[in-house]
Amino acid sequence: MNIHPNYRILAASTSTIHGSGYLEYILEEAVEFLNASEILFIPYARPSGLSYEEYTLAPQKAFAQKGVEVRGIHEFENPKAAIQNAQAIFVGGGNTFLLVKTLYELDLMETLKTVVANGTPYMGSSAGSNLTGMTIGTTNDMPIVYPPSFDALGFLPFNINPHYLDPDPNSTHKGETREMRIQEFHHFNDQAVLGLREGSWLEVQNGEINLKGSLTARLFEKGKSPIEIAPGQVIF
């Protein structure tokens, strides 16, 4: 399946892995990939209880270590113009439903599609990575708000399931596994789903999607057995 040749996308499962600070595990790669002196941060998925200003402090502190400035989109009077003029864009994690609802309400979805198709680098983590898929139907978040559509940006020809967890054979929990939930999704939907484990990310450029990090990812396609994608392997 063809990927837009102008896409430059870094889609990470998470912003923070166990035992390290915010973006610490991916910061070097992110700075090199985004190749910008200033990054526009979109905090609309903000974790519960944080203001946009408080949330933006996290990427500001992280990227400042590499001499890169971060400005929150809420600082601009015209958010659409801020996206159009951005050197690079970073969409943070939090609640995917809240993120998508806000972007639709502010009429920013098409603007994001346009600038990324024109070559503006895009980075997402968690909810921001969910946004790169076809829909948000495989997010792990609770639907705390009701967006007008589940349609995402559609940069990737599949959905992402961030924070993908394998079944724990020693767990006493008898509820659904993540794999079972994705199989339920496929009873009603056709989109492929990539289970992205913590510390892994996708790098999209030159018309290819590559898995990065040290772990495999699990690819689910309707009517097929899941397969493991190795780091460095081209997906689709």
TrEMBL record:
Any one GO MF term held by the record is: dipeptidase activity
The protein's matches in SUPFAM superfamilies, at most eight in alphabetical order, are given as: Class I glutamine amidotransferase-like
The record's annotation in InterPro entries points to: Class_I_gatase-like, Peptidase_S51
EC number per UniProt: 3.4.13.21
This protein's source sits in the domain of life called Bacteria
Q: What class of enzyme is it?
A: hydrolase
Q: What is this protein called?
A: Dipeptidase E
Supply the source organism for this entry.
Moheibacter stercoris
